[in-house]
Amino acid sequence: MPIIPISQNEFDSRNPARNEVVKMFSTEKSWFADTDRDIIGSVVFDRSDKDLNYVILAVHEDGSYRWIAGDTCIEKQTDAESRLVSSMATMDETGKAI
Question: How many domains does the chain have?
């Protein structure tokens, strides 16, 4: 399935788990989903380190989305988005978290 950009509202409607401490030090910049919407992801700016990270969340049996993969210390938002989309596409294709 293709990985597509989505709005923050659509991302939030999926009930993603968020760590309150992480929220204090970061700002979400962009959001993505596979077309089946069973995995979602976000690029996040870390205000303390001044770099970007991405997180990938998968839907669990209770309907909430929880962390399954991510990466840190990325300098450019375009690079973070490319890596996020690539990782999500691989997961979508293989059915396995990487």
Answer: 1
For residue 26, tell me if it sits in a domain: yes
Residue 88 domain flag = yes
pLDDT at position 20 is 82
**Strand pairing class (39-46; 51-59):** antiparallel
Q: What residues contact 64, with CB distance under 8 A and at least 6 apart?
A: 15, 16, 17
Instruction: Note the pLDDT tens digit of each residue in 65-79.
Output: 999 999 999 999 999
**pTM listed for this prediction:** 0.91
Query: Rounded CA gap, 96 and 24, in Å?
Result: 30
Residue 87 structure tokens: 């990782």
The secondary structure of residue 61, as a DSSP letter, is T
Q: Which two tokens stand for residue 68?
A: 């399954």
**Residue 80: domain span:** 3-93
For residue 7, give every residue at least 6 positions away whose Cβ sits within 8 Å of its Cβ, in sequence order, or none: 31
